[in-house]
Amino acid sequence: MIYLDHAAATPLNPEVLAVMQPFFTDQFYNPSATYMSAQKVRAALEQARADVAVQLGARPSEIIFTAGGTESDNLAITGVMREFPDANMVVSAIEHDAVLKPATQLNRRIAGVTRRGIVSIEDLRNKIDDNTVLVSVMYANNEVGTIQPIRQIAQLLTQIREERRKSGKSLPIYLHTDACQAANYLDLHVSRLGVDLMTLNGGKIYGSKQSGVLFVRHMVRLRPIIYGGGQERNLRSGTENVPGAIGFAKALQIAVDRRHEESERLQVLQKLTFDLISDKLPGAVINGSQKHRLPNNIHITLPGQDNERMLVELDERGIMAAAGSACSASDDEPSHVLSAMGINDADARASLRITMGRETTAADIHELADTLRAIA
Q1: For 43, which of 74, 132, 320, 349 is 20 to 30 Å away at the CA?
Q2: Which domains does the chain have, with CATH numbers?
Q3: How many CB atoms lie within 10 A of CB 25?
């Protein structure tokens, strides 16, 4: 079997499983309990928090462990907007539904993207007004892999903050980025990026599903969306998923350590894929930017084809791929990401997302190209 849907899920790294294992069995204690065995678990949890903070260039107190990317996005979006109920927010048109759907329930504006799937800085600036408290733009898109200009957006918000300060306006403006797809390949240092909130997902970095982090800069004001015992700085109540947090810290450390080497390896495979598709499928269209793109992502349209049929035939031949986000795979509507990029419904329904991972080889890519030529 050839697995080419790493944007949907990554296999659990054996090194990650090894550090998690004791916390399922011998060290099962609730870290909020007072006895010594439980406090050892608490210490391990806090060490994991500190380890994550080091990888992000953050303070340990700024790391909130969650149950994955969706919860982290919801906490960032809903948490800030509940703190500032009279304010508005701006999100890009190609955000994951974990951002777009909570934003729909709030006072939100949508910033458009270019044909290549890059957010329009001009449109984003035009959507921000004196009542905007939050801007949310994903670091890299989960469907077409486009890398967004987060640093440029952060610089824009710095200018806006200065303008507000000079005019005596007290409303803050925060920048949130969903970095779930970016974590394996891009710089995550929060100060270099200039972000105030950042979402990460363990299930995308060879950690366990239902593990994640929300980075919350110390000065950010937001309210919880889960109430209870007051864990995670009163922002995420509930007994902590200690194995998930321990595993997340290890998975993130491995991802950061391997980032450059793995990105270079996948860029070679990505170019091979583009070359083979151009040669064997001359009518194919590559969607998104080829320059500003995650190294593991290939998104193509095969005009006149049915992507559901192609996915079934690929699966029958031992190749697992996707048409778009796995979270909306059962949705009959065309991708909102492709629609925002100006791709019509017919072409959207003829599009495939191929996302490579650590075990992907050149032989896999040759097999993919030959199989696509055979079924298209």
Answers
A1: 74
A2: 2-8+259-375 (3.90.1150.10), 14-255 (3.40.640.10)
A3: 8
Q: Rounded to the nearest 5°, which phi and psi values hold at 47?
A: -65, -40
Question: Cβ(96)–Cβ(138) under 8 Å?
Answer: yes
For the segment 6-22, the average pLDDT, to the nearest whole number, is: 98
Alpha helices, DSSP H, located in 281-361: 307-316, 336-340, 345-348
Backbone angles phi, psi at 345, to 5 degrees: -60, -40
In sequence order, what are the beta bridge partners of 355? 5, 297
* Cβ(48)–Cβ(60) below 8 Å: no
Q: What is the mean pLDDT of residues 89-104?
A: 97
How far, in Å, CA of 35 to CA of 18, rounded?
25
Q: Is 33 helix (H, G, I), strand (E, B) or coil?
A: coil
Residue 145 clears pLDDT 70, i.e. is over it = yes
pLDDT of residue 334: 85
pLDDT tens digits along 307-343? 999 999 999 999 999 997 655 555 668 899 999 999 9
Distance CA 368, CA 372 (A): 6
Whether pTM exceeds 0.90: yes
Active site residues: 327
Q: Which two tokens stand for residue 84?
A: 């500032």
Pairing of strands 297-301, 285-286: antiparallel
Beta strands in the chain (DSSP E): 2-3, 63-66, 88-92, 108-111, 132-136, 174-178, 197-201, 212-216, 285-286, 297-301, 319-320, 351-355
